[in-house]
Amino acid sequence: MLTNERHDFIRKELSSKGRVLTGDLAARFSVSEDTARRDLRELVKAGDCRRVYGGAVAPAPNAGPIGARVELRSDEKMRIAAASVKLIRPGQSLFIDSGSTNIAISRAIPHDITLTVATNSLGVAMALADHSLVKLIVLGGAFDRDLGTCVGEETLRAISQLNADLLFLGSCGVDAIRGATAFDSAEAEIKRAMAKNSAAIVVATTADKLATAAPFRVVGPEAIHHLVVDRAVQPALLSKFKKQGILIHRA
């Protein structure tokens, strides 16, 4: 298969599945993994994907304005959100991190539950604005329009004054070995601060982010207590997470 044909195939896989794995590409094309990695590097240069551990992901789910990302894989996110809110107990204090899946979770929180929620995400804050029983704390700071969230020293100072029973941690990639990761260093710093001040961590993620790792580490797998995924995810993909002691919840 010619290089252009391989690239076209990879673009189609990214469009339909959201990610590709280097090993799978090498086997399909009957080429070495070095050749498959070179194909991915060329596609990264063209802006067609982002490299992650073990392969690449489509740029759309992790890039561009948050408003556009909310609509991607929306049915899957709604199912994940419905399963995620079952982990919440009345009277708890929550950190809800940035991310389109966490916005969906915030929308799914029942109106009859009393909570304290701290968030640096304007999307999350707006989703909870009409929840009269939720004490809402908006963590200020410098607003990043693409991320849809506040980052920086002011946000970190605000987080340091709070403790949470549960953190809903947004993740650009979650791997059973490398844990939860992010593409942006400033955003990763905020996530780490929330994790440090939380008694338990929930990662609710769409299937395209499983078994991938972005450049900036947030927490290791040992810090993750709950992983919420769609029911369509293959059990084999989740076995390594279970070995880490992570509780799996299928939406």
Description:
The protein has 251 residues and is α/β, with parallel strands linked by helices. The chain has helices at 3-17, 22-29, 33-45, 66-70, 74-84, 100-108, 122-128, 153-160, 185-196, 235-243, and strands spanning 19-21, 50-52, 55-57, 93-96, 115-119, 134-138, 142-144, 149-151, 166-168, 173-175, 179-182, 201-204, 216-219, 226-229, 247-250. The strands form four sheets. Strands 6-5-4-9-12-14-15 form a seven-stranded parallel beta sheet, sandwiched between helices. α7 (122-128) links the parallel β5 (115-119) and β6 (134-138). The radius of gyration is 18 Å and the shape is elongated.
Tally the structural domains.
Answer: 2
Number of strands: 15
Number of helices: 10
Taking the alpha carbons of the first and last residues, their distance comes to: 39 Å
Main beta sheet: 7 strands, parallel
Instruction: Note the run of SSEs as H and E.
Output: HEHHEEHHEHEHEEEHEEEHEEEHE
Shape: elongated
Biggest sheet, strands in spatial order?
6-5-4-9-12-14-15
What's the CATH class label of the largest domain?
A: Alpha Beta
Strand content: 15-25%
The percent range for helix content is 25-40%
CATH overall fold name of the largest domain: Rossmann fold
CATH architecture group name of the largest domain: 3-Layer(aba) Sandwich
What Rg is obtained from the alpha carbons, in whole angstroms? 18 Å
Structural class label: alpha/beta
- Low-pLDDT windows of residues: none
Average pLDDT reading: 91
